[in-house]
Amino acid sequence: MEASATTILTPDVTGTQGRNVTSVEKPAIILVPWDPDSPDHVERMRLQRVACGWKQDGAESWRPLQREGKIGLHWIVLAPAHPDTAPRLAAHKAQFPSETTPLRDTSRSILGRPHAVHPDIAAAENNFVPVGHISLDGWHADPSLHTSAADGVYSLTTFYVSQAMQGVGIGGAAVAECERMAVDDFGAKTMTLDTISNEDVAVDSPRRIALNRPIQKVTNQDWYMRRGYKAYQRRPNSWFDTDATGKEWWCTAVCLRKGLV
Ligand SMILES: CC(C)(COP(=O)(O)OP(=O)(O)OC[C@H]1O[C@@H](n2cnc3c(N)ncnc32)[C@H](O)[C@@H]1OP(=O)(O)O)[C@@H](O)C(=O)NCCC(=O)NCCS
Fold first, then answer.
1. What residues form the membrane-spanning segments (predicted)?
2. Taking the model in full, what pTM does it have?
């Protein structure tokens, strides 16, 4: 990955060089591939999925998909040169003491291509402490996302930013970097994803109330729509969560897409 690719914070409504991806302002994050053959990477992913609360046991099933280059699960790493990195990393380590040991960048390939260690990670002797993760996938089991590397349709999945620094732009920078990588490195034309629908997280949603979920400042669906994603399909009964009484609450997912070029 090129150093210039890692730095995106401010949306550019005019597009960048004719592309519908966000512009580069200053380095915030670096994406480092998750190594499916490293027990340390697998265990850290398990810890972060537990902290996230969804797909807590997913890591085992992602290992072969990552090896085969079908999915591109990446760690979100704070860029060493960014002025806010030190305090943000300190806050993450304080809140998640089991996540303080650095991992090593040991992946050999990602999405079917050889992986080159980022110069800033190499300067730290290949060590890094991830503060989240995001997957850029060229394959997905659910046909409603239309994911197909051959057709230039990639999908964002498995996305989490440390609760020690949500709302400061890290997630937006990670999505923007995935969009840039998809276009520049893999010739993508379209990005798709799915997320919980606005109705199921609304203030008066019986599901939200029964599951005791907090009222979000910005819903996941709106978060993506503010970044240029448009809803194209609703998917009722996508998954369920169980409330304290044992009742299952199914949710409606919404599929969103964004043209990248
Ligand atoms: C969704 C998530 C990945 C976003 O990452 P993030 O780093 O918090 O996002 P950013 O800081 O880049 O986004 C800032 C936006 O969130 C809003 N925001 C404000 N406070 C926030 C808070 N406490 N938490 C999250 N977002 C907040 C801001 O208003 C801002 O909106 P705008 O940029 O559209 O005006 C992250 O909140 C997360 O990991 N959530 C739990 C897991 C999850 O929901 N994953 C996505 C599944 S589809």
1. none
2. 0.90
